[in-house]
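## retry 2 of 3
previous attempt timed out at serialization; input unchanged, resubmitting
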Amino acid sequence: MRSIIVTSTKPYTGKSGIAVALAQVFADRGLDVGYFKPYGTMPVLVDDLTTDEDALYVNQTLVRPSDIADVCPVVRTQGLIERVLGGSNPDMETTVLEAWRRCADGRDVMIIEGPTEPGQGVCTGLSLTDVATLFDAPVLLIDRPRSTDLPEDAVWASRIIGDRLAGLLMNGVHEARLPVTRDRIMPFLESRGVPALGVIPYDPGLGSVTIQEIVDALDAVVLTAPDRLENTVEAFMVGAMGQEKALRFFRRKANKAVITGGDRADVQLAALETSTRCIVLTGNLLPDPFVVTRAEESGVPMLMVDTDTLTAVERMDTLLGRVHLHDPVKAARIRAMLERECDLERLLRAMQLD
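## retry succeeded, writing output
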């Protein structure tokens, strides 16, 4: 059996999406593919069992899913945090290895989803170096470069991984940065001993969320157009200026959510004049009835929340920062980009699957 650890340099790099795409690629080659995530950080309750949200979904995409109790044996809940801080946490390594053996039984390939960043899980003995040593498997590193940075996160992580590094993928690179990433950054990484496998462009559709997901995340009250909650939002903008400036500002982005105070009728009207999918009203303030009528006529949901604007912005940033995998269309798009942009044969050779 062969294994590959898929890990990342920082949050929101798309490693779970890459893991799903790799599983599909391997399955199409006739391999029995399993999935395992030693340490999860997004707890979700399923039939009185706590597991990780992404692990739950990825496992369900497999031809032969594993028992969900084994797929992610350690989840960062408040209870776990208290046990670790109190010094009474159980033997994590034994727990992980026993669950791993059950998931890996009879498989040809195992995809192990590593930590979001190298240091994540270090207090439980499940950091990147711990996981790589425990499973003695090659590592696929996913990075999403910042627009002005040298690739320092990638070089640093490659030093931590050492000889187990099978390759690096740059994921979610904006169009303006593609030439410099492909022509300068990737050759630079190769010169530093980092196998550069490919550059996957940014796709705004992958980070989109439905308005219903925004409603759930913000615990919002829907005031208008409740039949449009399945529409998707690709970006958000904050309206805190006058109407004339707001109109010019809002025209810069399509398919957006606008966050503004519930008493800012001028900003709300400006948003309705542009490509706006929904308006988030902060401060638990009801909008002007005239604006409500305009929004209803335009089919734009207005969502009232009891938080301030800053809190709403932080929650939206987190929501739109993640690639929401629970969509077969998005999974297919990720796979197509992976096959088109990544040197998969080089990765297979590193896994001894060529």
